[in-house]
Every structure is written in C-alpha cells, then in structure tokens.
Amino acid sequence: MKIIKVKNPAEGARKAFDIYQSALSSGVKVLGLATGSTPIALYKELTDSVLDFSNVTSINLDEYLGLDGNNEQSYRYFMNQHLFNKKPFKKSYVPDGMSEDHKAAAKQYDKIISEHPIDLQLLGIGLNGHIGFNEPGTAFDSTTHIVDLTQSTIDANARFFDNSADVPTQAISMGIASVMSAKEILLMAYGAGKADAIAAMVNGPVTEKVPASILQNHKNVTIIIDEAAATKL
Ligand code: GLP
Fold first, then answer.
1. Half-sphere exposure (CA, 13 Å, Cβ side) for 153?
2. I need a surface site. Which of 161, 169, 187, 205 has the fewest CB within 10 A?
3. For atom 13 of ligand 1, which residue has the closest CA?
4. For 71-115, how does the pLDDT look when each residue is reduced to its tens digit (9 = 90+)?
5. Which mutation among 33, 35, 225 tests ligand 1's pocket best, with the greatest number of atoms within 8 A of CB?
6. Which domains does the chain have, with CATH numbers?
7. Residue 36, helix vs strand vs coil
C-alpha cells in the first residue's frame, strides 16, 4: 500500500485530483465512485476543473434500499449534486435501491461491473473498517449483495438525516470481490475517528472482521490520510 499523508482534507483532495488527472490522461475508461463526506472535496476539485468525463463510465459502490434518486439522502442524489450534474459522464451507474427484486438488481449490477471493468476505484472507510457497505463479516468473495447495516454504520450515517429514525437499515452494495477486481484503488480517510480502522486496515491481520484489511492483498492501492487518521499507524 502506498500511503500519502496530508495536512487536511483540502490537501488530500488536491493529491487525489492529481491521480484522477493522470488516470484520465492515460485513457482510463471506468471509474468506481464512492459517497460519504470524505470524497466531497475531491468532487469539488473535479467539478472546478477542465477535466472531461464524457467518455468515461462511472460505477458507484452502493445505495440505500428504499430511497429513490429524488430523495436527498439517496446516494444517487448525492452523486448528482456533487459530481454528475456538473460533470456528466458517458454513463453513470448507481445500484437501484427501489427495485422490486433486489437479488435480480444485484445480479444485474454484477453484469454491469463485468462489462465495465473498473480502472480506478475510489473508497472511503467506515469506523468499523467497512468499504462500500460491506460490513464486518462480509465474505471476501462477495459480489453485489443486500446488506443489513450495523448499528455503528446507522449511527454514523444518522448525521446526514434530520431524524435518525429515517436512516435506512439496509443497502445494496458492490461486494468485496468486485472492489478487489479494480485495477487500482484509492482510499481516503480523515479525522481521529478513522485512526483505529486505518491501523487495522494497514497493519492488522487480513480478516473478514475488518473488510478493508483485504486491501493488503491488492497490488495497486493508494491511501490518502490526514495526520489524525494516521496516529495509530
Ligand atoms: C458510508 C458509505 C461508505 C463511506 C462511509 C464513510 O457507509 N457507504 O462508502 O466510506 O460511509 O463515510 P464518511 O466519508 O462520511 O466518513
């Protein structure tokens, strides 16, 4: 793993921007994208830039079940607001949280991923080491699946909702095997709250108890972290 330490999220976003700029100039075709507060500054760098994504396909990691794309808390809405409305892609896939048949939707998403191999996958990390919505205990060979969110994740994500009772308890998420199939992975994490997860990911055993620890087995991973997130390394 290549670790880049930065002073703050703004510097992290600029470093990440450089990675996207060179990926685009080297002809990247498919970007795996993520939500959460962490990538917002990077998306701002991208939308403020002259970079052109009209020949690039994007595939997002996950979506809440039960929220449609017009719901301000949905990840589709988030992506439209922070990136796609300002920087249209050739095609942007986000898992469907409103499908009548979630298993079929998951299978369909795997087909999309296999038809569009991901060149560069962006990740954040949950406090418990989750990536996407792959919670501790998720099989390393998992593909797209339906997730029962842990209380820790529900509590962590409640900050985005007016009422914590409104936080969905389930999601559809790209699996760990799908994330690992990306040619290159960029993970960003900021703040002291992420320090334990970062230490477990980088130095802990590779275990399904810490989903992000699987990244130790990937050949091309870059991690951008601030000083607070790096304190336990
Ligand atoms: C959610 C998302 C993850 C994200 C995590 C951390 O659980 N499904 O993809 O990495 O939140 O979010 P934040 O960046 O806001 O800390």
1. 22
2. 205
3. 36
4. 999 999 999 999 999 999 999 999 999 999 999 999 999 999 999
5. 35
6. 2-226 (3.40.50.1360)
7. coil
